[in-house]
Amino acid sequence: MTQMRTDELAELVRGRVAGDGATVVERIADLEHAGESEIAYVENESFLAVASESKAACLIVNERLSEQLPGRTLIEVVNPKLAFSLIGAALHPPVLREPSIHPTAVVAENADVALTAYVGPNVCIGEYTRVGAYTRLEAGVVLGANVTVGDDCVLHPNVVLYDGVSIGTRVILHAAVCIGADGFGYVRHELGYQKFPQVGTVLIDDDVEIGAHTCVDRAALGRTRIGRGTKLDNMVHVGHNCDIGERVVIAAQTGISGSVVIEDDAVIGGQVGFGDHTRVQKGAIIGSKAGILPGKIVRPGVWWGIPVQPLDQYKRMNAYLNRLPQMYERLKQLENKLARIDEILQDEQD
Amino acid sequence: MTQMRTDELAELVRGRVAGDGATVVERIADLEHAGESEIAYVENESFLAVASESKAACLIVNERLSEQLPGRTLIEVVNPKLAFSLIGAALHPPVLREPSIHPTAVVAENADVALTAYVGPNVCIGEYTRVGAYTRLEAGVVLGANVTVGDDCVLHPNVVLYDGVSIGTRVILHAAVCIGADGFGYVRHELGYQKFPQVGTVLIDDDVEIGAHTCVDRAALGRTRIGRGTKLDNMVHVGHNCDIGERVVIAAQTGISGSVVIEDDAVIGGQVGFGDHTRVQKGAIIGSKAGILPGKIVRPGVWWGIPVQPLDQYKRMNAYLNRLPQMYERLKQLENKLARIDEILQDEQD
Amino acid sequence: MTQMRTDELAELVRGRVAGDGATVVERIADLEHAGESEIAYVENESFLAVASESKAACLIVNERLSEQLPGRTLIEVVNPKLAFSLIGAALHPPVLREPSIHPTAVVAENADVALTAYVGPNVCIGEYTRVGAYTRLEAGVVLGANVTVGDDCVLHPNVVLYDGVSIGTRVILHAAVCIGADGFGYVRHELGYQKFPQVGTVLIDDDVEIGAHTCVDRAALGRTRIGRGTKLDNMVHVGHNCDIGERVVIAAQTGISGSVVIEDDAVIGGQVGFGDHTRVQKGAIIGSKAGILPGKIVRPGVWWGIPVQPLDQYKRMNAYLNRLPQMYERLKQLENKLARIDEILQDEQD
Question: Is this prediction's ipTM beyond 0.90?
Fold first, then answer.
């Protein structure tokens, strides 16, 4: 159990203590459930009532709201959620593994494993593979040949890296992530399909985190890339030769076909589908379940729907759709009226 | 091979034998392919013709239909499909594993593994983890530290339970299921993303069955829960802090964002997507591929579409959509007619 | 490193050399990045400009285009992409594994493993299981009891085959593929759900390739089948009792419910969802993200949308949808005009 004083924590997040800086906390918690030795955060004004009832030993608040919580031990910051996250990381550090290679691990003789690395039970490390300092390979991880894993990485159980894949520093790969399987490419001939060569590789840059069961395929030729600081949720599929930029966020079960480019700082929802050779420009936001046709360029802005369109347009279209029954009725009325007018005119002409 | 007499089986399902109760059966089969020592079931009237041709040694039928299969050995019950399922479980019991710990398993010294449990090859069991009576851990299963697995569970190959996860009794987890990976939460700051703490846990209650490759993320704070008797298909994604009730059924590839509540007895199709903080009320039924916007409350009834709407409304809307070409034509005709009338009136006024 | 002369390669693909047949190449590459000892291909006319700038030692071109690349070493063929694929396979043969059983593998005594097979670290092979000649089982593969794996197969790390599953020859299963988990079937009763028996099996025919993390469930009764030469991408879900024909192609994250039939030579996009008991007829093409209602028959042709419809019809419908705002305006104008005419007629009648 880690114990830290409020004033230490405040320093960590460049905040200011109000109240007793000597208050000790051990754990983070949410406002409602926080108890004696726990710290919680007040996201915004709407949580003030809950906050004042909270039993937390210390609250992280925006400096503007500090006055409204008199008599409490507070850490005042600009961004309470961010401060809470940093404090959480300090109070709940990742499991510490003693540097070691488990006797059941199978490590190629010419592999280069840092002395400070942890290699868990049943891990396999292929020829000429390099594992960086303080990196943790949990049980059942399989690294092929000529793989590079940087420093301070965590590979959770049963992660598989195919031959030649390269991973940066501070990368987290959750259970069963698969990097570098063959891309999906075939050439049709008269008897069936011939596999198109999949002899490229995958580069995962620093500070990437990838959710459980996500698959990133190797390039056919060249490389598939995931840029620095990008975060992928569970069960995302990244096809061969994709180029995903920096600080991109992609939610669960999204599927990205071959040769898609996603530029920096894009935000992609869950279950989105990308046709091949699409390009998402810097900072675009794509809603969950959207579908993007092959070759499409998605410009900055918020996008939605199948096929994808600007959110405004999508909403407007939905509003028209909702009027459809009413439009149908109005159309019928017009026809009736017109029939009557026709009759009148007919009568007049007769 | 298990052999059972028809009268024994009838007793098992509280049915009544018609014909020879001494008939022995060994296997279940479908009506069409069933042979000499096999038992099949007649779901309803529409299968009577096939049933009378069936070579099955014994048929399970609804008592009302019994007379229409003269001369056959029958088990009469209220619900033939249910009786067939129970008889199938009796005739095809799960593989029996001798209680044992395989020499290649890696078990922490302070782990508490029941004497009647089976721990297969290359299984890893972390510190302070508890494995209940008669539980089967198949090859390559990885249990972290402080995990609890109840009695009579089956964990198929390569299942991963992260630290602190708790599983009830009679739970079945299919191959590569992953419980307790970090939820997907980040706080944006000027340089990129800071991981929001994921320090909660997961509770899986009794009699849950989870399909291959499904992932249930741990809570950020607090817990993610899956209630008693709930069944999840393959490749379902359950985000952090979800609360899924009892006897819920969720088909393959459905994705559930963070903090979603699904109440008891809901039925959810495949490839459905849930925005965060949605709530599905008791007994609601949601069709495959539906999309639910964040925060939405889905009331009892049948729901469909993206975004989700009551099935009636969805169907009505689709009917109007199909009329759209016709409406367009009618609109054009009206315009033409009106133009002609305008002319006539013009002429008159001249 | 494999080295081959251009004339050898030309023979391999039944092509004709133009230029120096003695030119040696070692690797395939794309036109743009190809260097000294590399071979690239010119897919069609539109790549001629890039081709003439290419530094590749040899180019594969269609015989019609050959003249437009004077002074280059060429291999002339009918289908350059296919020839390139075959040459890629020759220059980049799969990793060769010495026939061996790794000391950490756990092989049942009565299993029948070919002398030429490779059984990697931590592989488990169950009772009465048969592994064919020259087959490669990579680290962590788990084969249950009574499994059959044919000759020349590659099972990548952590593949799981449940008891009784049968795999043909030259089958490639990528990392963590799961074949034979229980199908998703339950019978509702007053207290919850009873599992419907899942005692059938799975047959995978020759020359099938299955992408990482794809799951093919065993049949309830009978068998689930995947036909010869069929290719499945990553994270595809194939439900119990499906019958998938020969040379079918299915892209990533598509989900196929129980008892679906997909006939030979169908092409299915990514994230498609199939209701149970649907049938896709020979040669049908279904676009990504399509949804097929239970029981539907999809005839030959190109299909799109949710629910699926012929592409023509889908496009036409989309065109009408785009006219909806305009239709609404025209409807309003008609109403206004008619109101005015009504007034005129009223005046006349007064």
Answer: yes
